[in-house]
Design a protein that fits this description.
The chain starts with a strand and ends with a helix. 41% of the residues are buried. It contains five helices and eight strands; from the N terminus they run ββββαβααβαββα. The protein has helices at 54-65, 84-89, 98-108, 125-131, 170-173; strands spanning 2-8, 11-17, 24-30, 36-41, 70-75, 112-114, 136-138, 160-162. It has one domain. 23% of the residues lie in helices and 24% in strands. It is globular.
């Protein structure tokens, strides 16, 4: 795994990539010693250790407002893509090191916010990972019961606990949108 770091304006940033760089397994920003918030989204887009994309900017802003000491970003799929449709064309959209990082970061997190949207149903990924995790939070659920993507949720919406028993009725997991 390739680890790249960058520090700017008191924020330490780190990104973890596959050797081929087609996958980004993790991204983090740390600005204080307080515990970070972990967001688990669908897949990485254009953000790097040096630059935020709109989603990472929004997650960082939300984490700062919550009083967290940083933000960590992991994904159901490690494949870097700007559109969910690109995941369907990737031979292995998850990536060989993705699950280990997601589960390790989740185990160490004080709060994990599920935020992958409706496309998390692809390949049953959301249900598979959610079933292997302890406490999860969300910023709202879609009509089909998927955790909303943070880009489309107002900052005023506080994270809500997502009990395991309420996650993914069998009918919502089996079909991709």
């Amino acid at each position: 795994m390739i680890r790249r770091t960058h520090t700017e304006s008191g924020t330490f940033s780190e990104a973890l990539y596959s050797p081929c760089e087609a996958y980004r397994y993790g991204l983090s920003r740390r600005w204080s010693e307080a515990p970070p918030v972990l967001f688990i989204m669908l897949n990485p887009s254009t953000a790097t250790e040096r630059a935020n994309d709109p989603t990472i900017h929004r997650c960082e802003t939300r984490a700062r407002a919550m009083g967290a000491g940083g933000v960590q970003i992991a994904n159901l799929f490690g494949f870097r893509a700007t559109r969910p449709a690109d995941l369907r064309r990737a031979p292995d959209p998850v990536g060989p090191d993705n699950d280990a990082l997601v589960l390790d970061w989740h185990a160490a997190a004080t709060m994990t916010i599920a935020a992958w949207g409706v496309h998390g149903a692809y390949q049953g990924r959301a249900g598979d990972l959610a079933a292997r995790m302890g406490p999860l939070w969300h910023l709202g659920l879609t009509k089909a019961g998927h955790p909303r993507h943070p880009l489309y949720v107002p900052y005023a919406r506080a994270p809500q606990a997502w009990p395991a028993a309420a996650r993914y009725p069998a009918t919502s997991i089996l079909t991709a949108p």
